[in-house]
C-alpha cells in the first residue's frame, strides 16, 4: 500500500482514559522496568514521542494505568535518557535512595495530567485520539445535485471503528495504516490525506474515500 504517499504525520503518545474516551485524565509516558544502580534510580521504558520533555519535569504521577487506584504525585529529583539502552530513561524520585526502595516501583506507570499533554501542530494526531473513532466511507465523487434520487445511496456510510494504528518498521518508509474493525472483518486504510479526507477527533469521526482496489488488497484479511 505504499503507492499512497503519506501526508498526515502521527505522533505516538499513549493516553490512558480511566473513565471513557470523553473524560481523559492522564497521559502515559513511561513504564518502570527495574531498579537501576544503587542510589534509588529506576530504569523505565519510554512511551512518548517527546522524551526530551521528561528531563525537564519536576513532578510526575506514579501508579497503575488501570483506573483502579489514583496515582500518587512524586517530586522528581532528576530524569535522563539512557545512552546505552535505546527507548529507555532513568528516573530518580525524591526520597528514594536505595535499591530496595527503588524496587517497589517496578511495573508501575509514569503518568502526567492530561492537561500537560503536548499540543500537536495541525495535521498531526495522537494514536489514542484515533483509536475508537467511527470511520465513514464517502463516495468517490460527490453527487452533482444533492436532492437527486441517488443522494441517499451516495451519502457517507458507516464503515467501522478504528481499533489500532500500524506503523512501518524503523528501516522501512511508508504510510501508517488505520486498523478498522468492520462487520466483514479488519480493513487496513492508509492514513493519507487523499484517503482520510477529514479527521475530527473531537467528534470521534474519520471520513474516508477508498481508492479503487483497496478492498481487494484487504480481502484476505476480511475473509
Strand content: 35-45%
Q: How many distinct folded domains?
A: 2
The count of strands amounts to 15
Remind me, CATH topology of the largest domain? Elongation Factor Tu (Ef-tu), domain 3
Q: Using only CA atoms, what is the Rg?
A: 21 Å
- Average pLDDT: 82
- Under CATH, the homologous superfamily of the largest domain reads RimM
The termini sit apart by: 19 Å
Percentage of helical residues?
under 10%
Highest CATH level, the class of the largest domain: Mainly Beta
Strand order in the sheet with the most strands: 3-4-7-6-5-8
Outline the biggest β-sheet: 6 strands, antiparallel, barrel
CATH architecture of the largest domain: Beta Barrel
**Contiguous helical run count:** 3
SSE topology string: EEEEEEEHEEHEEEEEEH
Structural class: mainly beta
Spans of 5+ residues with little confidence (pLDDT < 50)?
Answer: 1-22
Anisotropy-based shape:
elongated
Amino acid at each position: 500500500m505504499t503507492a499512497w504517499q503519506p501526508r498526515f504525520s502521527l505522533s505516538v503518545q499513549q493516553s490512558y482514559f480511566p473513565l471513557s474516551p470523553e473524560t481523559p485524565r492522564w497521559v502515559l509516558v513511561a513504564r518502570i522496568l527495574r531498579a537501576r544502580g544503587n542510589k534509588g534510580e529506576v530504569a523505565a521504558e519510554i512511551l512518548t514521542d517527546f522524551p526530551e520533555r521528561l528531563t525537564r519535569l519536576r513532578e510526575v504521577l506514579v501508579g497503575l494505568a488501570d483506573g483502579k487506584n489514583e496515582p500518587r504525585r512524586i517530586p522528581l529529583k532528576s530524569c535522563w535518557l539512557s545512552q546505552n539502552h535505546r527507548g529507555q530513561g532513568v528516573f530518580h524520585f525524591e526520597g528514594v535512595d536505595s535499591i530496595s526502595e527503588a524496587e517497589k516501583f517496578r511495573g508501575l506507570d509514569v503518568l502526567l495530567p492530561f492537561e500537560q499533554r503536548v499540543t500537536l501542530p495541525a495535521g498531526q494526531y495522537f494514536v489514542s485520539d484515533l483509536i475508537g473513532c467511527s470511520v465513514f466511507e464517502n463516495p468517490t465523487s460527490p453527487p452533482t445535485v444533492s436532492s437527486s434520487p441517488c443522494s441517499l445511496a451516495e451519502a457517507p456510510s458507516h464503515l467501522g471503528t478504528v481499533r489500532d494504528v500500524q506503523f512501518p518498521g524503523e528501516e522501512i518508509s511508508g504510510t501508517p495504516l488505520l486498523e478498522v474493525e468492520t462487520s466483514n472483518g479488519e480493513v487496513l486504510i492508509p492514513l493519507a490525506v487523499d484517503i482520510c479526507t477529514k479527521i475530527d477527533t473531537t467528534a470521534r469521526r474519520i471520513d474516508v474515500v477508498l481508492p479503487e482496489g483497496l478492498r481487494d488488497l484487504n480481502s484476505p484479511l476480511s475473509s
